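SEQUENCE, STRUCTURE TOKENS:
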Amino acid sequence: MKKRCLLMTLCVLGWGSLAEGSLIGLDHAGNYSAWTNHSNGGTGFQPWTFQNTGSGSEFLGDSSLGLNGNAALNTSGRSLGLSAGSGESAMAYRFFDGGSLGLHQKFEIQLGVNYLLAGSKGFDLLDASSNSLYNFTFSYTPFPFPEALYYCNGQNLMWSAQPDSIMTISFTRTNDLAYWVSIMRNNGDSWSGSVALASEGAGFRLNCNNTGTGSDRNLYANNMSLSSIPEPGTVALLGLGLLFTFRKSRAHLRF
């Protein structure tokens, strides 16, 4: 009986491991004592490259100061932050260490945004030449009446502004230039769908433009990861193999 329980446990653990995939890259703000141009924490990513205008800047900071007290984005009490006053911009580029995102590989990042009274802030998935392939933007729109809106590649998500918003954004390459995009907000709002991109995703850019001064105007980011996701067919076949092994072993254990 104990052997049967052990085999069942191993099958469940094996199935869970197969379905979850394997982590191939990870970075977060806790890996940095200072976030500077060309710094490179964690694994699976190339060094950061900053491109700013005016007094636009990148920094390490407590996201709760800019997210209405919400510290959930932080690692070791801090997140990566971008600040850009009136007429200024801050952009942070980073590429995947292994080149373009491979088939059945997933990139994920978390963003923190408060409200806006000017400008925009967000994220772009980039190709190897730094061209934008897909973007998520929180943007201030003065007309026909002033409001801040969430856009997913130009599509208005119709979400209401929330001062403690944390977005979990992921891209999974499913076939050639097809990607599954998922955006989830900490209040339960979500959007997902399959999109066809112009070329392969090879990196990303964080953007903060003309948002004004103050912690609540900044963009915060953290918890970047790269993982390998098994093909559904492979998971199914391996799962059947585990089940067959378990059933065969159970038959041998009967008395």
Notes: The first strand starts at residue 22 and ends at 27. DSSP finds two helices and 15 strands in the chain. Helices lie at 2-20, 232-253. The two ends are 10 Å apart (CA to CA).
